[in-house]
Amino acid sequence: MACKEEVGQFLRDELKLELSEAKTLITHGRTQAARFLGYEIVVLDNDSKHDRRGRRSINGQIGLKVPADVVHAKCRPYLHHGRPARIAGRMVDSDFSIIAQYQAEFRGITEYYQLAFNRHRFRRLKYAMEMSLTKTLAQKHRTTVPKVYRRYRAVLQTDLGPRKGLRVTVERGDGRPPLVSEWGGISLKRRAKVTRLDDQPRRVWNGDRTELLQRLLADVCELCGSRTDVEVHHIRHLKDLNVKGRPKRSTWARTMAARRRKTLVVCRRCHEDIHAGRPTGNSSRRTALESRVR
Q: Whole-model pTM above 0.85?
């Protein structure tokens, strides 16, 4: 035991190792919460919680919580002096893109904390984001928030039944289905089974570059020209397109870097090729593959 302490002291003195307090802190689970990957981990204790047989059902079990400071931090970008406020940088976009971005951001944050039993804390975030959204639309159209609600109010069909929300529908004509962007309909109930966790959702909005809605309405793959199953490929940062040590950038990466935008409208086959690392944009190969399918 003494030998281990001497070795540890030697390493600290000679190598000047600095340990992260957040990662090395020892916490007593029954008296305080431990932090891990953004969650608070606690040991549940409630003598009044019983199962069907009248037995205490949760004592001693591990529970995951949404930390209060996380809720405050997620609300901060949508507040000004503590109150929900419009975001001026988003007013240059279409109503479709504005609602789509708010929805994507809220979904990404809440889905990361699906395992938390107090996920309902994000009701505060939902209120802040919804008020910021409606104020942004109101400022853009020089109108009031109540008029925004009357204009875009809709009943959204969800797995848990109908829910009130906002919806923007863009008709495309020629028998094609319309583009629909919605706000709301995301449940804040805890989910025991989760397949993916990501609290930094990819944006569906593209700043002052080419408007996403315009490119979706074009309904043409920007790599091969196909009009079949058009989707949108996203990246988080433009700097991800310039990775040191990469011998040669692919066609899609060069296209996004040249246009300096984080979204690219592509067909489903090109989208699959991008994620699989295969060459993209070969129109002759795409035509041959489509003819085989037919």
A: no
